[in-house]
Design goal:
Number of domains: 3
Shape: rod-shaped
Largest sheet: 5 strands, antiparallel
Number of helices: 10
CATH architecture of the largest domain: 2-Layer Sandwich
Bound molecules: adenosine-5'-diphosphate
Low-confidence stretches: 102-107, 428-435, 478-484
Strand order of the largest sheet: 2-1-5-4-3
Strand content: 15-25%
Structural class: alpha+beta
Order of helices and strands: HHEEHEEEHHHEHEEHEEHHEE
Helix content: 40-55%
Radius of gyration: 53 Å
Number of strands: 12
């Protein structure tokens, strides 16, 4: 049950509400109690004032040694209320007169209790004193003040029963005791209803999301209100689905292209082998020719599989770079030297511009692969008698390695796509020329190599007079040692 967010929300809400209600009722009770006490004190002070006025008047009317006692009795009779007890004490602490003596007397005699004694002792140290006195049903609020009459000092004490106040406070407590639980039950039911209502779109979304799989990845969650939090959640989820389906689509295309590229050399291998085996007698020359074709296609196949493997590992971030310090100008010179045979075969003039010393911290074999790919393309797509030139210059913190050819260039509309996997501007030509025309992976791999070194590879320009590819590589040592 606690696994449900609705239930958990309701429980939390109820717990917080209970605490708030308890705190509020405690504060209310305390304020109520304080104002009751204050009212009682004001009442006691006023009563004492009125009592002393009456007492004064009566003392003047009386004569003899008992005049204060007699005047006190008259004043008590005049001011006596059911909940009040009056007493006048002389300066020796003896009762001169008390309402207890006047019938009907209060049922209990509080003046003899130790609590009263304590209060009375304290009153001798203050001119006026309020305090609590035990006794009666619920105790008394006591008030004591001194006054002088006929040359002597007396203390008047008025006790007000707290029974009525206590009853009121109990009534308040009893009201809280049933109002709070009812409020909590009602509020929890409301809270559960609200939680249910506000989480309903989430439940609907999760049901919808549960139905979306590889087969219907195009479906999207319904967005009720794109400005609220749930709308944002649905939009984020839809965004995730968009990215997933694009990635699925890329994977699917990659697989389809890869199998397509692999099918051709495999078909040639099979066909050539079948032809060679179908004839009983073949000359040595014919066998050599067949084996040559088989070898060429096997090499092509190996090349494609290796490229695919490189790209897959690069995608998964599992291609570890092995950087070391070396000179880029030397690597370029070596690569140009390796490509010389290819260029000679096509009577292409291969020029290398003298470069200054170019120290670099990079993965040498990957950079060699990139340079050879670019040189290979430049030679492959340049007609016989053309030229290919290579330059490497330092500009700020990076090297710009450019390979320019005098080939036919790449049509402007195809230029943005040449770095895509398996893209070939002229598929038919690459295939039939039988010159090792790649599967359209060379530039993808080269771009990845440049980026893995925190650089970039760009087609700087291309027109019918030729093309220039430029790789920008950081001249400073690389901070990280792994490719991504
Ligand atoms: P491929 O293995 O087909 O050469 P790449 O990824 O290396 O694959 O190149 C992709 C496509 O870009 C090529 O098929 C070609 O059409 C075009 N291309 C690459 N380099 C050049 C170049 N130097 N001149 C003209 N076209 C080029």
């Amino acid at each position: 049950m606690l696994d449900s967010v609705r239930v958990r929300l309701t429980l939390w809400y109820t717990a917080v509400l209970t605490l708030v209600l308890i705190a509020l009722s405690t504060i209310t009770y305390f304020i109520f109690w304080r104002s009751t006490v204050q009212r009682t004190d004001v009442n006691l002070a006023e009563l004492s004032e009125a009592f002393l006025t009456t007492l004064d008047a009566e003392v003047n009317d009386q004569s003899g040694p008992d005049s204060l006692r007699l005047a006190g009795q008259v004043a008590i009779t005049e001011h006596r209320f059911r909940d009040h007890v009056f007493a006048i004490f002389d300066d020796a602490g003896n009762i001169v007169v008390s309402s207890q003596e006047v019938p009907p007397a209060s049922s209990t005699a509080p003046f003899s209790s130790p609590s009263f004694q304590h209060f009375f002792d304290a009153s001798s140290r203050a001119d006026r004193l309020f305090g609590k006195v035990k006794g009666g049903r619920d105790g008394y609020r006591g008030f004591a003040r001194h006054f002088s009459s006929l040359g002597r000092t007396y203390t008047i004490v008025i006790l007000q029963s707290l029974h009525q106040q206590q009853e009121m406070l109990e009534e308040v407590t009893a009201t809280f005791a049933w109002v709070i639980p009812i409020a909590i039950v009602l509020a929890s039911a409301g809270g559960y209803f609200l939680a249910r209502k506000s989480l309903a779109p989430v439940v609907a979304m999760s049901t919808q999301a549960g139905r979306i799989g590889a087969a219907n990845l195009h479906e999207r969650l319904a967005v009720q209100n794109d400005r609220d939090e749930l709308g944002h959640l649905a939009q984020s989820f839809n965004g995730l689905l968009d990215r997933l389906s694009q990635s699925f689509e890329r994977q699917r295309r990659f697989m389809a292209d890869a199998s397509h590229e692999l099918r051709t050399p495999v078909a040639i291998l099979r066909g050539e082998a079948e032809v060679a085996l179908s004839q009983q007698e073949r000359s040595l020359e014919e066998y050599r020719e067949s084996l040559g074709v088989l070898h060429q296609e096997a090499e092509r196949l190996t090349h494609i599989v290796e490229d695919l493997f490189t790209l897959t590992r690069a995608d998964a971030g599992q291609y570890p770079l092995q950087p070391r310090d070396f000179y880029l100008d030397e690597l370029i010179a070596e690569s140009v030297h390796s490509a010389r045979t290819l260029a000679l075969a096509k009577k292409i003039c291969l020029n290398l511009e003298e470069a200054s010393e170019s120290p670099i911290h990079a993965d040498e074999s990957l950079l060699r692969r990139m340079i050879l790919n670019l040189l290979d393309n430049a030679i492959k797509y340049t007609p016989e008698g053309g030229s290919v030139s290579v330059t490497c210059r330092r500009g700020g913190k990076e090297y710009a390695l450019s390979i320019t050819d005098t080939g036919g260039g790449i049509p402007a509309d195809l230029q943005p796509r040449i770095f895509e996997r398996f893209f070939r501007a002229d598929k038919a030509r690459s295939r039939t020329e039988n010159d090792g025309g790649g599967a359209g992976l060379g530039l993808s791999i080269s771009r990845w190599i440049a980026e893995a070194h925190h650089g970039r590879l760009e087609l700087t320009h291309s027109n019918p007079a030729g093309s220039t590819f430029t790789a920008y590589l950081p001249a400073e040592p690389l901070p990280s040692a792994t490719g991504s």
